[in-house]
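Our consortium's second objective concerns turning raw sequence data into structural hypotheses that experimental partners can test. To show how far this objective has progressed, the report includes one record in full. It was chosen at random from the queue rather than selected for favorable results. The single chain below, 73 residues long, was entered without modification.
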Amino acid sequence: PDLIPQGKIGSRFSVDMGLKKQIQKGKGELFLNGTDILNTLRIHKNISGNGFNLVSTDYYETQVFRLGYSYKF
């Protein structure tokens, strides 16, 4: 976690994964990869100040999947 003067920002993590397959006698390649595949990236905050207390959980739209093809010539 990150300690800041007003409180604490919780730790964060995500899981990424990728697969790759060579095709066309090694000249072509198919790939599939994804970021935050378990949709776990969120940040918990606990911040206090003069006359206020903030407890929040922020969710980010980080889940992305890509499918691609490359060819070597």
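The partners drew two points from this record. The chain has one domain: 2-71. The beta strands are 2-4, 7-9, 17-23, 28-35, 42-49, 52-59, 64-71. Both points have been shared with the crystallography group to help prioritize constructs.
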